[in-house]
Specification:
Length: 492
């Protein structure tokens, strides 16, 4: 890491074979602070040559890493968990600055989860080396041998770099693979520094990080013959490109993609809890609704519909403090980059035609943070809710990925299920009810990878996390980072 000087931006570098390395071309890209729109750091713009070098580094490190015992690898995982605790403040600040996620959440929400993942991966190493024995007759012994896959490539989105980095790296490493991480070109700073820290603990080449454009570096990595698995968290468009790039030489894929998740409130629900769950905890979050499981379609049973709109509005006014992500007072930050900001603003324009504003709709630093000129060039959008009459509208079907949601009434449980499932996606779903029978029926009938009842967004190490339909398939779990070899020994 290069230190900032008065007029020079801090420059971050790739992590290759345990060392910090610039792009071979020497080229860099400015990383923009989403709160101000100004450059605050530089990251490498890597090329195809760098791809070969980094994959070779991971490949070379693989045999020795795979040969370690599960307990030895677990020891490394625990050391990393401890290291995160030591660098918690720095990591939380980098993530907040880089993507605009408010520091109160990166500090108290993200950091503990990162530690948990590494410690959980430490506990899981043994699982990755367990097979089954099968009696195949008096003289034949069958068994399965679990083996690591080789080099695992983790491709990260811009909205949650360190969480996705950790989910992908921790379980792949725990299973005995070596890893190459490619963060998003517009949110690479925290991953480059995190990789630097991890590389201090791990043997050289076991964990590598390369920054570059998805269509160049990402594509070359995915198609590389020495990459044995690809795990993407990102958009459906990128998933399609990866599926095409690997069609000739297939390799296991894990695809964690987008969502348009329903958050459904029945009239018998605890309304106070539900209001929080469908607003500040569902979509109007510390990272401005830029979350794959954002509850962006809010369905409310008709008898409580008007009351809930009033409660939601009051709750938003009371709880949301849009502002500097680095301030502990702020509860919602900016949009991560200019192109996503423009996309959200264009959906707000569409929403004005398709629906009726319940609250919000404004954007821009000058409008939303008056008297704070430093934020005028930042990418600010206020919490916005549109009331709609039909789920067929574009704002109900397309992923907006920002602090913008729709709300619509329903009458019966059957109607709620039909509306909830009327989407190409299937990632998360929330149900708010005090009726256990209703909750059970909803769980069974919702076409979604995750269903949360009287809570929302409960993601962590205890349960698998993945989607169905266009939200992808697979999970970043220990077993998905292994392969099973079927063995038979004939005796006598
Ligand atoms: P994106 O698909 O544009 O980019 C994701 C990553 O893919 C980036 O690192 C990018 O450089 C890389 N990439 C792009 N083209 C590539 C190619 N041809 N080959 C290889 N890599 C390529 O996604 P984004 O805009 O960064 O993130 C937002 C998306 O991620 C949303 O759709 C969101 O729902 C999704 N997401 C899903 C989850 C989940 O767990 N399901 C979590 C967070 C975000």
């Amino acid at each position: 890491m290069t230190l900032t000087t008065a007029n020079k931006l801090k420059e971050y570098q790739n992590v290759v074979n345990g060392e910090l390395v610039p792009a071979s071309s020497g080229e860099t890209v400015d990383s923009l602070d989403p709160a101000t729109g100004e450059a605050w750091a530089k990251v490498p713009r890597s090329s195809l040559k760098d791809v070969d070098t980094i994959v070779a580094s991971a490949r070379q490190a693989f045999p020795a890493w795979a040969a370690l015992s599960a307990l030895e690898r677990a020891d490394y995982m625990r050391q990393i968990g401890d290291l995160i605790a030591e660098h918690a403040e720095e990591i939380a600040e980098l993530e907040a600055r880089d993507i605009g996620w408010v520091i109160r959440e990166t500090t108290y929400g993200l950091i503990p989860v990162l530690k948990q993942i590494w410690y959980d991966a430490a506990g899981a190493t043994a699982v990755a080396s367990r097979g089954e024995t099968v009696q195949m007759g008096p003289t034949s012994l069958g068994y399965t041998l679990r083996e690591p896959l080789g080099v695992v490539l983790g491709i990260l989105p811009w909205n949650s770099p360190l969480f996705t980095f950790t989910m992908k790296a921790a379980y792949a490493l725990a299973a005995g693979n070596t890893v190459v991480i490619k963060p998003s070109e517009s949110a690479a700073v925290s991953s480059l520094r995190y990789g630097e820290l991890l590389a201090k603990v791990l043997p050289p080449g076991v964990l590598n990080v390369i920054c570059g454009k998805g269509s160049e570096v990402g594509d070359a990595l995915v198609s590389h013959r020495d990459i044995n698995k690809v795990t993407l968290t990102g958009s459906g468009t990128t998933a399609q490109a990866i599926a095409k790039a690997t069609a000739q030489h297939p390799k296991p894929l894990t695809l964690e993609l987008g969502g348009k998740s329903p958050n459904i409130v029945f009239a018998d629900a605890n309304l106070e809890k539900a209001v929080d769950g469908i607003t500040t905890n569902g979509i109007f979050t510390g990272n401005a609704g830029q979350l794959c499981v954002g509850g962006s379609r809010i369905l409310i049973q008709r008898p409580i519909f008007d009351k809930m709109l009033t409660l939601m509005k009051e709750h938003i006014e009371k709880s949301i403090q849009l502002g500097d992500p680095m301030s502990p007072e702020s509860t919602m930050g900016p949009i991560v980059n200019l192109s996503q900001y423009k996309q959200i603003c264009s959906y707000i324009d569409i929403g004005l035609e398709e629906g009726e504003v319940v609250f919000g709709g404004r954007h821009g630093g000058a409008e939303l943070l008056p008297g704070k000129p430093q934020f005028e060039g930042g990418y600010w959008v206020e919490p916005t809710l549109f009331r709609v009459e039909s789920n067929a509208h574009r704002i109900c079907q397309e992923e907006i990925f920002g602090p913008v949601a729709v709300v619509m009434p329903f009458d019966t449980e059957e109607e709620a299920i039909a509306l909830a499932n009327d989407t190409a996606f299937g990632l998360g779903a929330g149900v708010w009810t005090s009726n256990l029978d209703c909750a059970q029926r909803m769980i069974r009938n919702l076409d979604s990878g995750n269903v949360w009842v009287n809570t929302y967004r409960r993601v962590g190490v205890e349960l698998p996390f993945g989607g169905v339909k266009d939200s992808g398939y697979g999970t970043d779990s220990i077993l998905e980072n292994t392969r099973e070899k079927a063995c038979v020994i004939e005796m006598g």
